[in-house]
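Researcher: Please predict.
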Amino acid sequence: MRDVMTKSMARNIFYGGSLFFIIIFLGLSVHSHRYIVTTSTDAATLTDSVAAGKHIWEDKGCINCHTILGEGAYFAPELANVMTRWGVEDDPEGAFDILKGWMESQPTGIEGRRQMPQFNLNDEEIRNMADFLLWVDSIDAQDWPPNDAG
């Protein structure tokens, strides 16, 4: 090998390396797209109630305290698997009842504990939130959260 690199050698390394990394990038992009398309949630499970629950989640700013699938604040518990933790992942009516009881009992007023605000949601809004949380619990989250406690 030469001790000196010529302009043409440098240009070939630059173009060859650029082409190599562009091909790698495009290959990973295609792989990622195919993986997401084949493993994401079926659109048929996205009901109007789930969408309305997501809207309430966003409107009330739940992500400012809670995390969902690892995104959000770490002030309050992760909610991606809350329905499994409560044991109602296959029972929409039970999920509604438990969530309604929880939401209506907030804030608890226990001294020294973090308090969830009272949002004064009606039954339909609570049912939509329950459906949204059931939907989130049912999607393939690739083993997230890493433990059952969220």
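Model: The mean pLDDT is 89.
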